[in-house]
Each structure stands twice: as structure tokens, then as C-alpha cells.
Design brief:
The chain has 415 residues and is α+β, with helices and mostly antiparallel strands. The chain contains 17 helices and 16 strands.
RNA sequence: GUGGCCAUAGUUCAGUUGGUUAGAACGCCAGGUUGUGGCCCUGGAGGCCGUGGGUUCAAGUCCCACUGGUCACCCCA
């Protein structure tokens, strides 16, 4: 094979696009009901936007970004996630000045240069939402409910919602120091990865998957026990509201998001039907990000979700998206009807019908077979005799019935 | 970035201790109905057996390298 798609990228073939389109439509309709408007940002940005917002020390920025210098010698990066671009656009266009609360969603490709595996590609697709301008726990809950509703609409029930609070700029640094002190005591026993994190990102140590690390850190102090009054009250209200609207959750005091900008609420939705890459969606509050990017302090909350993983779950469940079929397949019985068939096909399409006809000069039998394979509702057989008396044979394929029809009355008959 | 497994028609896979023209099913095309689908029957097209090297009289089969895929670690959606 001379050319193939680049490692970690995939062609979404015609056989699969109906599934993608169905899922995208469902997602958009839920966003619409929650009154989130779509925002479309470029897929590349200045590199600094991402390193600044996601965090220099994160794996995403440190080793996964597609970064290159363009011909003007500017450092460009293919977006590894959606929030940074949305916030950049929010600031650039002063969206906050138009209304106090901005609710937007996005859907599109993201890029991270990781080793591909089940549920992980280098070009993958995410959808997500951001609500900017409200500090209230109600907004956190709306965002969580929004993500949950999408899965619910798609019939996905085997998931779990975990929530945590990662504190704010006041209580988190204080807690981090306490945690570091504790971690240093057992540093020599921890896995190499965790050892490295003690100083730079101690909270990640608690989220380690290493069994030994898990056991060692079992009794470590958790952020949720060291929240200041404001963060604690916020977290309590989020939990209370989730319970009241009937969204089950579990509190996981060790949950840490991979991006540095989160404050207070952090959450993750995982599927029990996926392999090792089981996170369907993740998100949380990020009250400091906009300030970090040079704007005035603006509270925000959002989530991001993976489309491939969502589709994997649906496929595993055997879900079949609705397919579209031609309404009528015009079967050309002999060459004298060929021109007429093409003209009629195009005319009917223009009137709004899905119509197909033979372009391969095939036998009547082959055309009938094709009409059947495409699950066309009708086959219309037209040849010399039909054209002479202005009547064709309209066959209803599923019902195995056929009768003569006036060719001029086709638009009415096909309604 | 590290490791395991895999690589034969469009697809899913067979291919016996290395032995002559590499098979099946499904799919595709055509015929059986010289103007009628789904079932059935018959026929056909379609493979430098991932690439390169090695061992051997002989390699799809054994060895090595590379490439690609896949799964896991890591990380995350």
C-alpha cells in the first residue's frame, strides 16, 4: 500500500457515517434543549495558548501536542482539547459583555500524539460545553446533567459518575503542602512515576493506578477534607442538587483532572463497557482560567467527552442507527428509457424525493437486486412500451405488489 | 516513550512434521427467468501469503530486521 492514513488516524467510512451522524444529531439536540449554542473555533492555535491554560507540567503539553513552526516561524499547535480555544474566543470577542452568562458547545477533532490503543487515537473527536459567567453550584449541576442527558438519550446506562472537589487557590495550596509532607515520608516506597509527582503534582499520586501506591496512600489526607468554607459549601450544594434531581454519583476524593485549570468541582463519567480507556467524559469548574489567559476573573464550568468512546459503547450494545433509503429506484428496462430515467430521476430529486437509477447499464434483474439491496421503497420499471403509453410499473418492494401507474402522476403517488 | 500478541482474497479465517497450479465462507459480478429483488442452483473475477534479508534442494510455513495493526502500561475524552 503506497499511502495509508497516518498512525492513530482513521477514515470514517460510508458504512459508519450513519452512526456518527445519528450520534451528532442527538448531541446537538440535547445541547439545544439546554440552550447551549455551538461555537466553532480553528483547530490550531498559538502554542502558548495551550501551554498556558492546560499547564506546562501536564503530560498533554509536555509530550503529546502536535506542535510545529509554520512558514512565518510561528509556533502552532493542533488543539489537544477544546476549552482553551473557546476561552480564547470568549476573550477575543468579549462575549462576556453581550450577556452575563455564556453557554456554548463544540464538537470536532482534537489531536494528541499518544500511542494508539483501544479508545485512543491521535486524531479523535470530542464534544463539550462551557458555561462561563456563573459561580453557582447550580451551573456545575446543569453541566453534569447535560452530559448525563446525552448518554441517557442514546440509551447508555452502564456508566458511573464520580465527583470530587479540588479546592480553590486558597485552600488547595495549603492542602498540597500537607499532602507533600505526608508523601515525602513514604516516597521511597512509591512507584517511580509517583515519586516524580510528589513535588510537582502531588494530588496525582493519589490517583495512581499502581496497586502498591494505592495501598500506601490509602490513609492519606484528601482535598475534600481540607476544603475552605466556601469550597465545602459549594461542594455540598452540588451533591445536594444532584441527589435532588435524581442523578446518582459517587464521591471520589482521589479524582484529579489531567488539566491544571480546574477548581472546586471535578467530575468524570466512566463506562463499564470499555477497556482500559473507559472515561466517557470529564469536566469541572475552572474559575481561574480566564484570568490566567489575561481576562478578568470569570467563573466557568464545562465538560468534554469522547465521541469514539461513546460510539464504541453503542456499537458494543449492537445499536443500529436509522438508515436512509431511496424512495424509488427507476429501473431501466431497455436503452430507449435510459435518457428518460435520468431526466425523471433528477426531476423527482428536485421535488424532494430520494431517487436512484441505473448508471451501470445493468440488466433488469441486476437493477432490481440493487433496488432491493438499497432497501428502496419502490422500484419503477420503465421501457419502450411504458414510455409509449405514459405508464410505468410501480412495484412496492417490501409488499411484493405492483401495478401500472401514470408516469405524470409520480410526484403524487410517491408522497 | 516501554512491553505482549498478530500480519494469507473486499471481509472473517483455514493452510496438516517446510514439498508441486494457496483454499473456504460471506461479499462482489454474471447466468439460471432473452423486462422483475430477497431464497436456491451454476459459473466467474479477486492474493508478488505486509516488506527486505537469511536457513534449505525446496519457505505462506523456520530465523532475523523493518513496517503496519492491535492490546496493555503511561496518560486521558
Amino acid at each position: 500500500m503506497l499511502y495509508r492514513a497516518i498512525k492513530g488516524t482513521k477514515d470514517i467510512l460510508p458504512a459508519e457515517t450513519p452512526m456518527w451522524q445519528f450520534v451528532e444529531q442527538t448531541i446537538r439536540s440535547v445541547f439545544h434543549r439546554f440552550n447551549y449554542k455551538e461555537i466553532r473555533t480553528p483547530i490550531f492555535e498559538q502554542t502558548a495558548l495551550f501551554s498556558r491554560s492546560i499547564g506546562e507540567l501536564t503530560d498533554i503539553v509536555g509530550k503529546e501536542m502536535y506542535t510545529f513552526t509554520d512558514r512565518s516561524n510561528e509556533s502552532i499547535t493542533l488543539r489537544p482539547e477544546g476549552t482553551a480555544s473557546v476561552m480564547r474566543a470568549y476573550l477575543q470577542h468579549n462575549l462576556g459583555q453581550e450577556q452575563p452568562l455564556t453557554k456554548v458547545y463544540y464538537i470536532g477533532p482534537m489531536f494528541r500524539q499518544e500511542r494508539p490503543q483501544a479508545g485512543r487515537l491521535r486524531q479523535f473527536h470530542q464534544f463539550g460545553a462551557e458555561a462561563t459567567g456563573s459561580p453557582s453550584p447550580e451551573t456545575d449541576v446543569e453541566i453534569i446533567a447535560l452530559a448525563i442527558e446525552i448518554y441517557k438519550q442514546l440509551g447508555i446506562i452502564n456508566y458511573s459518575l464520580q465527583i470530587n472537589s479540588v479546592g480553590d487557590e486558597e485552600c488547595r495550596p495549603r492542602y498540597k503542602e500537607i499532602l507533600k509532607t505526608e508523601l515525602r515520608k513514604i516516597a521511597h516506597k512509591l512507584s517511580p512515576d509517583s515519586q516524580k509527582r510528589i513535588e510537582q503534582n502531588p494530588m496525582r499520586v493519589l490517583d495512581s493506578k499502581d496497586e502498591n501506591d494505592k495501598a500506601l496512600t490509602e490513609r492519606m489526607p484528601l482535598m475534600i477534607d481540607y476544603l475552605n468554607e466556601q469550597c465545602a459549601a459549594h461542594f455540598e450544594q452540588v451533591k445536594k442538587l444532584l441527589t435532588e434531581i435524581g442523578i446518582p454519583y459517587t464521591v471520589n476524593g482521589r479524582l484529579v483532572r489531567g488539566l491544571d485549570y480546574y477548581t472546586k468541582t471535578a467530575f468524570e463519567i466512566t463506562s463499564t463497557e470499555l477497556g482500559s480507556q473507559d472515561a466517557l467524559a470529564g469536566g469541572g469548574r475552572y474559575d481561574l482560567l480566564i484570568e490566567e489567559l489575561g481576562g478578568k476573573r470569570t467563573p466557568s464550568v464545562g465538560f468534554a467527552a469522547g465521541l469514539e468512546r461513546l460510539i464504541m459503547v453503542l456499537t458494543k450494545k449492537g445499536f443500529q442507527p436509522p438508515k436512509s433509503h431511496p424512495t424509488v429506484f427507476i429501473v431501466v428496462a431497455d436503452d430507449s428509457a435510459r435518457e428518460w430515467a435520468l431526466k425523471k430521476t433528477i426531476e423527482l430529486r428536485s421535488l424532494g424525493f430520494a431517487v436512484e437509477t441505473d448508471l451501470l447499464n445493468r440488466s433488469v434483474k441486476a437493477q432490481m437486486k440493487e433496488a432491493d439491496r438499497q432497501q428502496s421503497t419502490y422500484a419503477l420499471v420503465v421501457g419502450t412500451t411504458e414510455l409509449q403509453n405514459g405508464k410505468g410499473i410501480l412495484k412496492h418492494l417490501a409488499e411484493h405488489t405492483q401495478h401500472e401507474v401514470e408516469l405524470n402522476a409520480l410526484p403524487q403517488l410517491l408522497q
